[in-house]
Amino acid sequence: MQISKFISVVLLNYNHANFLERSINAIISQSLIPYELIISDDASTDDSLSVINKYVQKYEWIKLKQNPKNLGVCENTNSSLNWIKTEYAIFAAADDFLQRDWIERSENHIKNNCNIGLIASPAYAYSAKYKKEIGFYSSLFIDFKIKTLSPDEFENNVTKYGFFFKGATSVHNLNLVKKYGGYIRQLGSYADTVIAYRCGVEGGCV
């Protein structure tokens, strides 16, 4: 079993017991597993904890962070920052699923681009009803052709194509996330996009 030196995954959960096994299994089956998987449960009232604890008991690198009260997505994310022991982090929701080699490919980009601010890839919406991908879910300048952008190039692309970044398919430089205060609650569902943008503008992007 190969373990990442640079990347941790924070899995944010609130009442997603029905999705947790698939989401966690997608991380366990990575070709390169993260240094740690921190499952931050936001005071779920369903069977989430029983699902999570099965994995915590089996895998030492899987940790449970249990909030005593519901904080909401942004504060749940921010309260997890000091738990992370690596330089980079992925912030995913319990209904997100990673492709099998995503962490390994991201690790290689970090090795080749020291102190990069952001690694971002395309994301797709998936329909449980139709059991297939149903739409592209990222900024239009993010595609399958690998490119390394300086901070200025990144900002120019964002200006031209617009910016939208999915947290689960973005690897963030943790120092930059902390520098800019993490997820800003007032931004609601745009908080992950804004922090990704700030990481890319300062540190560049792959």
For the structure shown, list the relevant keywords.
globular; about 210 residues; 6-stranded mixed beta sheet; alpha/beta; about 35% helix; 8 strands
Structure description:
This protein has 206 residues and is of the alpha/beta class. It is built from 7 helices and 8 strands. The protein has helices spanning 17-28, 48-58, 73-78, 102-112, 151-161, 174-179, 191-203; strands at residues 7-13, 37-41, 62-66, 88-93, 118-120, 124-127, 132-136, 170-173. The strands form 2 sheets. Strands 3-2-1-4-8-5 form a 6-stranded mixed sheet. α1 packs parallel to α2 and α5 crosses α7. It is globular. The model has no long low-confidence stretch (mean pLDDT 89).
In short:
The chain is 34% helix and 19% strand.
Share of β-strand residues: 15-25%
**From N to C, what is the helix and strand string?**
EHEHEHEHEEEHEHH
Radius of gyration: 16 Å
Low-confidence stretches: none
Counted by DSSP, the helix tally is 7
Average pLDDT rating: 89
- What's the main sheet like? 6 strands, mixed
Cα(first) to Cα(last) distance is 26 Å
